[in-house]
Amino acid sequence: MRSGNAGMKAEKPTRLMTEERRREIVSLLQQQGRVTVDDLTKRFAVSAVTARGDLDALSASGALVRSHGGAVPPLNPAEEYPLAIKESLHQDEKARIARAAVQLIRPGQTVILDAGTTSAQVALQIKKAKIGSLTVITHALNIAMRLADAPDVSLIFVGGIMRPVSTSCVGPQAEQMIRDLHADHFFLSVDGLDPETGLSTPDILEARLNALMIKAARETSVISDASKLGRRSLSQIAALSSVRRVITDNRVTRPMAASIRAAGVDLVLV
């Protein structure tokens, strides 16, 4: 009996230490805006496995969002975050989504790529796939730079008012240019997808331009990881029914998947 009681008592400090450490991680995250596994191992004298376990547990509870090598605070869909932060989130999922998107493209077609880190992954996959002659239209400087040296890509850059947070161009000049163009595919990366309110993004001018891009393309594919589904951002782009398909990762919930399909939209899970 004594040995059993001793075992039970020994477990309590371990649980308490774990809870205290995780509370400290959340506090540290609020102060610094980001934590890394390396920093946590040094600060708390724990292994990388333990640090990752803490971050995974806090992520599951909604206290933070896992990023490459660490974590960031929960993202507010009404706010827009720098590319450096967004690029560190859901990297594997974005790469799988991009590979699925590129499989839809055929030689000789014209493609519009929206701003965003998933769209940047599509640009990278276009270079790797060597599809053949393509025309790519984009208003995002980071994507244009990725494709600038692609030998088989004819690049059309849509200019306008530069938004530093996303390196994308918006405004009347960009809108007029899109009105004069036509495309086979538009790959749209959204900050929010809600079956009732549709597709959304934090910036009003970005939303206006995205809506015109939908009209300019024969078909539109939403390319967003599952964390964006069920969220509403500030500015509505269009109704969900205005797109042909949604390409997302397999973390999507069954009710959300059913709602997307009920809107007459194809759902591709990767």
Protein architecture, described:
This protein folds into two domains: 2-74, Winged helix-like DNA-binding domain superfamily/Winged helix DNA-binding domain (Arc Repressor Mutant, subunit A), CATH 1.10.10.10; 86-269, Rossmann fold, CATH 3.40.50. The protein has 270 residues and is an alpha/beta fold. The model is unreliable at 6-11 (pLDDT under 50). α2 (37-44) crosses α3 (48-60). Strands 6-5-4-9-12-14-15 form a seven-stranded parallel sheet, sandwiched between helices. The protein is 44% helix and 22% strand. The protein has helices at residues 2-32, 37-44, 48-60, 83-87, 91-102, 117-129, 141-147, 172-179, 204-216, 254-262, and strands at residues 35-36, 65-67, 70-72, 110-113, 134-138, 153-157, 161-163, 168-170, 183-188, 192-194, 198-201, 217-223, 235-238, 245-248, 266-269. The longest helix is centred in the first third of the chain and has 31 residues, at 2-32. It contains ten helices and 15 strands.
What is the highest CATH level, the class of the largest domain? Alpha Beta
Low-confidence stretches: 6-11
Per the principal axes of the C-alpha atoms, what is the gross shape? globular
The domain tally reads 2
Termini gap: 52 Å
Instruction: Give the overall average pLDDT.
Output: 89
**Over the alpha carbons, how many angstroms does the gyration radius reach?**
22 Å
| DSSP E strands, number | 15
Oligomeric state of this protein: single chain
The main sheet comes to: 7 strands, parallel
The run of helices and strands is HEHHEEHHEHEHEEEHEEEHEEEHE
Q: What share of the residues lie within helices? A: 40-55%
Query: How would you write the strand order of the largest sheet?
Result: 6-5-4-9-12-14-15
CATH-defined fold name of the largest domain: Rossmann fold
